[in-house]
Amino acid sequence: MKTHATRDKLIEIGADLIAEQGFNATGINAVLSRAGVPKGSFYHYFASKEDFGLAVIDAFAEQYDARLAAIFESTDAAPLVRLRRYFAAGKADMLSCDHARGCLIGNLGQELSARSEVFRARLDQVFRAWERRLVACLEEARRAGEVPHELDAEALAGFIMAGWEGAILRAKTVKSLAPMDSFEAILFRQVLDSELPAVD
């Protein structure tokens, strides 16, 4: 149990450091020092820094998917309200770090996709899983008559993911939620042809 707890602690601290300064700039010694784990212990838990990075991605993806499930599988709200809750959660996350971190998966995608096929493939898997959540929500919205019937749910989910990740990046650079607010408003009013539903 102690081994699992120590490994989980290293992953948690690694995720924080990577979110703050990037994967390449995050040294193993810094992770071990902040975790209070003796130097030299790292390779007891991970075969390499790449293995550690993949473990961080997997842990983050698992935790984040649980958040997405709570939002998108909720039965107490219409599909487009759930979509707005997803955006609201992203904006709350951005405010909580004073626009400094953004999306860990998006950050790693920018940093590592051109350098490592292993990382690129794993990050793409994560994005595709998120897109499937959006597809299911949009298909439900279409069946409920909340969006135009002719909308292609899969294409739109890809557009939303790409646009939202871009808005998050822009929010970091301008230190403001304005790009995220703008993307959400244009998506609803001009793409989904819907007014912004109220979010409780």
From TrEMBL:
GO terms for molecular function: DNA binding. Residues 27-46 bind DNA. InterPro entries: Homeodomain-like_sf, HTH_TetR, Tet_transcr_reg_TetR-rel_C_sf, TetR_C. Keywords: DNA-binding, Transcription, Transcription regulation. Residues 4-64 form the HTH tetR-type domain. Pfam families: TetR_C_13, TetR_N. This is TetR/AcrR family transcriptional repressor of nem operon. It comes from Halomonas fontilapidosi.
